[in-house]
Amino acid sequence: MNIETIQDAILASGLDGWLFFDHHRRDPLAYRILGIPGHVTATRRWYYFIPAKGAPRKLVHRIESQILDALPGSKQAYSSWQEQHTRLKDMLSGCSRIAMQYSPNCAIPYVSLVDAGTVELVRSLGVEIVSSANMVQEFEARLSEKQFAAHIEAGRRVDRARREAFEFIGQRIRSGERINDYDVKQFILKQFEQNGLTTDHGPIVAVNEHASDPHYEPTSDAASPIRRGDFVLIDMW
Length: 237
Fold this sequence. Notes:
Blueprint: H1 3-12, E1 17-22, H2 28-34, E2 46-51, E3 57-61, E4 74-78, H3 81-91, E5 97-100, H4 116-124, E6 128-131, H5 133-140, H6 145-174, H7 181-194, E7 204-207, E8 232-235
Parallel strand pairs: 1-5, 3-4, 5-6
Antiparallel strand pairs: 1-2, 2-3, 7-8
Helix pairs in contact: 6-7
């Protein structure tokens, strides 16, 4: 995390700051953008405010007072909810417009991670909240040149696996051999392994009516045969 770069983005957006908030690890974006270690315990609410100018500020519960110690900035602690509200008001003193992980009308659900009650709390302090979506995109979703090159190469390998999967289907049908959607799924996974690709989920190979089910997944016990003239959908990632 580079505080100066983030502050440049805050200033460019015409904001007074960016407020990060979490409770029970509800906001994975905050942890990734701020670089908070993944092993920390987060059972109490914490706040991290990066102002457009000046040093960041932390507000943590006394039970978990070290949760943000890896981050720069001054620290305040609270115990009661009344003390939390008072210190949050102090943290945002002088601010009129800030960003949070909020999306109007939940237009972007992946960014809309702050609960409605916390939004109400911040607004009750006289502070306007705008979406952090554009800054999240800049600091969490932007690829380096190396990552972009790897993405393009992975796309080539995935597309090759797709092409070879359809060739595999065609060869089996032309030779009169039996083939089903599970066979094709396993073929693709083998191609992924041989070509250095990793995935957190196997591909969808769906025949005919199953193609209308976006979560269909063939198994060894529940597979559909593929015959000449059938419609076959392959979805890979």
